[in-house]
Amino acid sequence: MQEFVRDIGRWTHRIAALLLGMLAGTGVAIESASAVDGEQNDARAFVTYGCHQCHGYMGQGGLLSGPRIVPSELSFEAFADIVRHPYGVMPAYAPDVLD
């Protein structure tokens, strides 16, 4: 059972990394090891900064939590502006969070 839970956690992080990569404008195609590293860092940041607590591990949002953020029709610049200058209960994040 523990192995099953661990495997779900691994897949959840991989899915979150992929979704964050798409959200950040990197696209689905992964062309190099540096792109994979970047997506893994994005997924770590998504969890480290607690984004998943309101938006879900896959960016799907929830009934009583933050809105769905994936898929998004926002440009990266518009998304970054919301992250840096949010409304409601979402905390503001420094510009380097999205670098």
Give the ordered list of helices and strands: HHHH
What is the tally of helical segments? 4
- Structurally, the number of domains stands at 1
Class based on secondary structure composition and strand pairing? mainly alpha
- Low-confidence stretches are 26-30
How far the N terminus sits from the C terminus, by CA atoms, comes to 38 Å
How would you describe the shape?
globular
How much β-strand is present in the residues?
under 5%
From the alpha-carbon coordinates, what is the Rg to the nearest angstrom?
A: 14 Å
List how many beta strands DSSP finds: 0
Determine the fraction of residues in helical runs and give it as a percent range.
40-55%
Mean pLDDT: 75
For the sheet with most strands, the description reads:
none
Descriptive account of the structure:
The chain is an all-alpha fold and 99 residues long. It has one domain. Helix content is 53%, strand content 0%. Helix 1 (2-23) packs across helix 2. The protein is globular and about 40 Å long. The chain starts with a helix and ends in a 15-residue tail after the last helix.
Give the SSE layout.
Elements: H1 2-23, H2 33-48, H3 51-55, H4 76-84
Short note summarizing the structure:
This protein has 99 residues and is mostly helical. Helix content is 53%, strand content 0%.
Supply the key terms.
mainly alpha; 4 helices; 0% strand; 99 residues
